[in-house]
């Protein structure tokens, strides 16, 4: 766990929402589920301390653009320093279309999210999912993860229903046990 992650968690737990950074095993599953091959643009929402970012960049198709949007200024600085060649911007996922236009990024074929959905209000969840659906390429994939166990609780079931309301296809990966806590990936298509 990085000092910046801990500092951000202590200063703004309502925007970090994780107790531990995601594992390399979960990062690999996120990238696999996102079908990056052939995409011309990839967006990461909420890179946090960059647990997924390195795996995304390592699998980015040749010539593809990458944009990461992080709300926490501490984590934006950390991820920017860790991946100096990547476009990491401080901003909000509710303004995804604006960020794409501002940074001249074409319609993404993959959007990966490390956002802490469970701590967001219904209105914020819906606002972000609208932006994702409206800005995702026609054949694109939106991937996000959920912790195994809490996904069976009311909020977890409600979030899955939101995904099903916004996307025509929602698939779930096997549980990634090598993560604290164990998690799985939702892959969604328009």
CATH topology: Rossmann fold
Order of helices and strands: HHHEHEHEHEHEHEE
Number of strands: 7
Shape: globular
Number of domains: 1
Described by strand count, sense and barrel closure, the largest sheet is: 7 strands, mixed
Instruction: Identify the CATH architecture.
Output: 3-Layer(aba) Sandwich
The CATH H-level superfamily is Vaccinia Virus protein VP39
What is the typical, i.e. mean, pLDDT?
Answer: 91
Low-confidence stretches: none
Helix percentage: 25-40%
The strands making up the biggest β-sheet line up spatially as: 3-2-1-4-5-7-6
Question: How many alpha or pi helices?
Answer: 8
For the terminal residues, how far apart are their CA atoms?
A: 35 Å
Please give the radius of gyration in angstroms: 15 Å
Question: Could you name the CATH class?
Answer: Alpha Beta
Question: Explain this structure to me?
Answer:
- The protein has eight helices and seven strands, in the order H-H-H-E-H-E-H-E-H-E-H-E-H-E-E.
- It has about 190 residues and is of the alpha/beta class.
- The chain has a single domain (about 5-190), classed as Vaccinia Virus protein VP39 (Rossmann fold, 3-Layer(aba) Sandwich), CATH 3.40.50.
- The protein has a seven-stranded mixed β-sheet with strand order 3-2-1-4-5-7-6, with helices on both faces.
- Strand 1, helix 4 and strand 2 form a beta-alpha-beta unit.
- Helix 7 runs parallel beside helix 8 (about 155-165).
- The longest helix is centred in the C-terminal third of the chain and has 14 residues, at about 120-135.
């Amino acid at each position: 766990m990085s000092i910046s992650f801990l500092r951000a968690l202590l200063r703004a737990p309502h925007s970090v929402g994780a107790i531990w950074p995601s594992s390399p095993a979960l990062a690999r599953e996120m990238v696999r589920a996102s079908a990056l091959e052939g995409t011309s643009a990839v967006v990461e929402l909420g890179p946090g301390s960059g647990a997924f970012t390195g795996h995304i960049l390592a699998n980015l198709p040749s010539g593809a653009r990458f944009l990461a949007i992080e709300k926490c200024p501490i984590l934006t600085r950390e991820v920017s320093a860790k991946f100096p060649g990547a476009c990491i911007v401080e901003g909000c996922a509710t303004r995804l279309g604006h960020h794409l236009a501002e940074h001249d990024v074409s319609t993404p074929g993959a959007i990966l999210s490390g956002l802490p959905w469970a701590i967001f209000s219904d209105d914020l969840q819906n606002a972000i999912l609208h932006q994702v659906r409206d800005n995702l390429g026609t054949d694109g994939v939106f991937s996000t993860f959920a912790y195994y166990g809490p996904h069976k609780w009311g909020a977890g079931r409600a979030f899955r229903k939101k995904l099903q309301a916004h996307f025509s296809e929602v698939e779930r990966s096997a549980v990634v046990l090598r993560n604290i806590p164990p998690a799985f990936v939702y892959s969604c298509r328009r």
